[in-house]
Amino acid sequence: MGERKAFHAYAGIRPAVPPSPGVLDRFAAIVGDRHAIRDPADKAPYEREWRDHYVGKAALVLKPASTAEVVAIVKLAGETGTALVPQGGNTGLTGAQTPHETGHEIVVSMTRMDRIRDIDPVSNTLVAEAGCVLQRVQEAADEVDRLFPMFIGSQGSCTIGGNLSTNAGGINVLAYGNMRDLVLGLEVVLPDGRVWNGLRRLKKDNTGYDLRHLFMGAEGTLGIVTAAVLKLYPRPLEQVTVFAALPSPDAALALMAALQTRAAGTLTSFELLPRIALDISLAFDSTARDPVATVAPWYALFEVAAMHEGAARTSVEAVLADAFDDGTVIDATIADSQAQRNTFWRMRETVSDAQKPLGGSIKHDVSVPVALVPRFLDEAIPVCRAMIPDCRPVAFGHMGDGNIHFNISQPAQGLSRDDFMARYGEINDAVHAIVMRLGGSISAEHGIGRLKRHLLPEVKDPVELDLMRKLKALLDPDGLFNPGKVL
Amino acid sequence: MGERKAFHAYAGIRPAVPPSPGVLDRFAAIVGDRHAIRDPADKAPYEREWRDHYVGKAALVLKPASTAEVVAIVKLAGETGTALVPQGGNTGLTGAQTPHETGHEIVVSMTRMDRIRDIDPVSNTLVAEAGCVLQRVQEAADEVDRLFPMFIGSQGSCTIGGNLSTNAGGINVLAYGNMRDLVLGLEVVLPDGRVWNGLRRLKKDNTGYDLRHLFMGAEGTLGIVTAAVLKLYPRPLEQVTVFAALPSPDAALALMAALQTRAAGTLTSFELLPRIALDISLAFDSTARDPVATVAPWYALFEVAAMHEGAARTSVEAVLADAFDDGTVIDATIADSQAQRNTFWRMRETVSDAQKPLGGSIKHDVSVPVALVPRFLDEAIPVCRAMIPDCRPVAFGHMGDGNIHFNISQPAQGLSRDDFMARYGEINDAVHAIVMRLGGSISAEHGIGRLKRHLLPEVKDPVELDLMRKLKALLDPDGLFNPGKVL
Fold this sequence. Notes:
Two copies of one chain form a homodimer.
Chain A: H1 21-31, E1 36-37, H2 40-47, E2 58-62, H3 67-80, E3 84-87, E4 105-109, E5 116-120, E6 125-129, H4 134-143, E7 146-147, H5 160-165, H6 173-176, E8 183-189, E9 195-198, H7 212-215, E10 224-231, E11 233-234, E12 238-246, H8 249-262, E13 266-274, H9 275-284, E14 298-306, H10 311-325, E15 331-334, H11 338-354, E16 361-362, E17 365-367, H12 373-387, E18 392-398, E19 403-409, H13 417-421, H14 424-437, H15 456-459, H16 462-475
Parallel strand pairs in A: 2-4, 3-4
Antiparallel strand pairs in A: 1-2, 5-6, 6-10, 7-11, 8-9, 8-10, 12-14, 12-15, 13-14, 13-18, 16-19, 17-19, 18-19
Helix pairs in contact in A: 1-3, 8-10, 9-11, 12-14
């Protein structure tokens, strides 16, 4: 998979020389030899982006067990000019967690710092270390009858630290916000080796500048997050999951607004899918079935959650009845069991994998103001088709957040994969230009990492970019924290 | 009202000399003479904190009408070394909006920048200029069948810019968060005169560091917020408002947890009141009546909102029935009309004013983790009583956010107001020590301003304070933005 890399040539980054064997020994001594990985085969899983889009090389992989060990690592890095690449579950999609090819950097894998330090269902807080796997946090919340509402595909292996550092999104953002919205406090080891203990469990604290949000979404370039206070929520008692066939993205918007104002509950997800997404998922997974009897150009998969049994379903049915009448909805199926709910969601989750048999895919993770999603699709799809006739746009995603995974699969015939993928940057540029004109973002939920680093100067207001660079220089003047990522 | 100031002596701040008449003329020319206030009588309302806790003196009051005029003011301030004090509705409680007594500072009143630039009920966004009065934003949202969920006592005169700069709280934080949680984008004039146009209307944007949260809650010390993209929400169709008599703060916690997990809707407010708060409110307002028939040591005023008529009330009644059975609730009244709902809330809102006839009041705006509110009260009330026998603690507030307005009224007899208020700092220190031990905050929702500036070095982690100072130096190296506030 070299197609992405082709557009993002490796840029020289600090440090220019590898750490000496003596320095590596000193690093290893901090965590103990068992947790300092030097063997190339053992290191490999930490050096590769999981889809092999980036295959780097680390001088060493360290697995600290405590904040104190992270501090010692950071201090030694500062003393010896060694660059550090913080890593969680290594599930990121932009290469932020992958070391460069130089072999000069040390990967700091946080996976051994996986304790849940505290859980308090009265205050609705949970204190987790950075290496905690997201699913374990979900389960711990569940055990005390609370909800931790971050749900993403990689939840079985991604970590809280990675979720924080990339400001993870997922399918519940509509109701609960992004990862940064789910955090009350943070503990961060700063690039100078000091610990900022901001592990406050407070819903209100107006004693000066908010430092939390500097580190969240910074992809490890401003320090290493070691723990966080997360917010818990009451668990809904009823979930109504619907797969609806729609005439257009405009109809999806209208349906969404009706649900938000009239459903007896909270609209927690609203996913948009084009017919092609269903077709390829059905082809990919022989056990899958069409969730709705009627074939339509677009579909919505949505969920309404309520703190009460019964009312939500009745009200969703009423919204759907009106939507049938006015032509907003062509057909719809309400999940009648948890099993059916799961098949609905599997259909949505299969889309990315189901694209693979179609050949090359030129991907975009973009957002626009919610009301402009139809306009974005109206403009971007024809532009792509004009550039590559018969290309197959698979535009799906979190419509409720204005976030579309705008993926273009290669034509069924007439163009080789290589020739198609050679136009990656050209298509990216055209799509991103539309996104920017609509006031959107070229990275809605996956971050910048290495993948989109070169795009920032094109899409960011120069004032904003300058402020970002000044913040980086302020906190990490030696540029040793995840160099060459984001900025 | 000199009692607070006695503990917060004026600290020498920049600039050391007043702007010359020629410089003042240049500032006035930017906004036009009509909007450059020089007459002492006309300036006076902008120079005084509204309760006269701080009475400052401004060289000039400028009322810009546009971001461009703010830029021109800021550039001239940089060129001439003139300090600026941004001001919104002048309703703040910590003196952040008040110029110092030197007469060297220029107040920049944002009240003419009061346009609602855009409202989009599909994207659920509203773009407001900083000088917009909060209530106008609420009304504009209401007109398109949406909710802007920030509700605070001063909403008829406070401005969005002030709400942002102080990260306002209020009675709906439990469900919707603080002001910083209600913002998608910002426009800020930086101290160097550049404009950061971060007016994005996006729910998801992961393209680098989050700068918004630097400026929110910074009380005008890092730049001047000129506009914001605010989040709108669906309007609940049912609100159930209850006044309940309780045996203890522990019972209040138990009731709150039961409501959060069992009410068919969202618990949007949960306010705690001691009996004395009702007694003084009844004495203060002759039209007020006891909301609950039974006299109890504590009361809760709470509200459950739902997107559906009927279900919420039934479920709240069920929670209350169980609470009666297990002794968590002694008595309760559910508001049967909007008028009754208003009288419930008036009782809560009267508490501050109703304290005045009792004489001096030593105030604290503190927060602790929600589960620790009972322990805080158990510890802090006896400590105050031990220090000043017969003092009258009026501890009330937003229990759902762990935020207590812990006000101590002077004894009914035996101690003069002056002798009581002379112990302000001593009581503050004792209460804040308990707050800090419980992992709380000494300013939950009102901010730091001048009032608590001297306390920051005592309560803040030195690493955090150092980071705050470095951020201030980075953005405002000449210290011209609201000097002597926060830091």
